[in-house]
Specification:
9 strands, two-stranded parallel ribbon, 8 helices
Length: 224
């Protein structure tokens, strides 16, 4: 299993992401965490995300999970065409709804175990990979749902990792203050978690787990 779970964007060490990817550079860009945003905002912001991946030598294209809400369409077959997934941040609950309704949730674990597919994403894209979304309601609205979406709030995450993630921790980000409450929630319940500053990412490769992209001032604390 290969995962790249970032706080914001690619992070400070993009090579850690790209070296996970094998010969197949086709990358599915999943932007469904943006589905509450106005159409023009989505269409205006997505090209920059795609260009950023292309600059890394990848072959990105959008994969809209809403197209697979129809039961007869097979998302698993489509996902098998890609070497990597890049899942954007936004509303974690909306993203998880899209994953549940499209069949993504049912097939991603097996695909990651059986193939060389890389699961990568930031913010919401990282948060949904954890056991559950409890605590994330301090950052994202859990009840807001776009038209055509299941209104029931999804709490169970993909469970690709056994710990929780608090992104944007003490960073220059509008959600940073709210993320302090997420960390407090985890601490009070003695849950295993990782708080990521923007620029940092968790890399999972088989049984190896490491945090990369730490700013230079943090290196000394790691050596103590």
């Amino acid at each position: 299993m290969k995962l790249y779970l970032s706080s914001y964007g690619i992070g400070n060490d993009p090579q850690k992401f790209t070296t996970l990817i094998g010969a197949n550079k086709r990358t599915a860009v999943i932007a469904n965490a943006w589905d509450l945003s106005p159409v023009e905002e989505r269409s205006g912001g997505l090209p920059a995300k795609i260009d950023g991946l292309r600059a890394l030598g990848l072959e990105p294209e959008e994969l809209d999970l809403r197209r697979y809400f129809v039961p007869h369409k097979s998302l698993k077959q489509k996902l098998e065409e890609f070497g990597a997934l890049w899942i954007l941040g936004g509303n974690s609950f909306v993203l998880l709804r899209a994953m549940n309704m499209s069949g993504f949730t049912n097939c991603i674990g097996q695909l990651l175990a059986d193939t060389e597919l890389v699961y990568a994403g930031y913010s919401a894209g990282a948060v949904v990979a954890t056991p559950d979304l409890h605590g994330i309601e301090f950052v994202d609205d859990p009840v807001a749902a776009p038209d055509g979406y299941d209104k029931k709030t999804p709490w169970e995450g993909l469970g690709l990792v056994g710990f929780r993630i608090a992104p944007h921790y003490r960073s220059d980000h509008p959600e940073s203050e709210a993320c302090e409450k997420v960390v407090e929630y985890f601490e009070n319940r003695k849950l295993t978690y990782t708080a990521l500053q923007d620029g940092e990412a968790i890399v999972v490769h088989n049984k190896s787990v490491e945090v990369v992209g730490k700013p230079p001032q943090d290196i000394g604390s790691l050596l103590k």
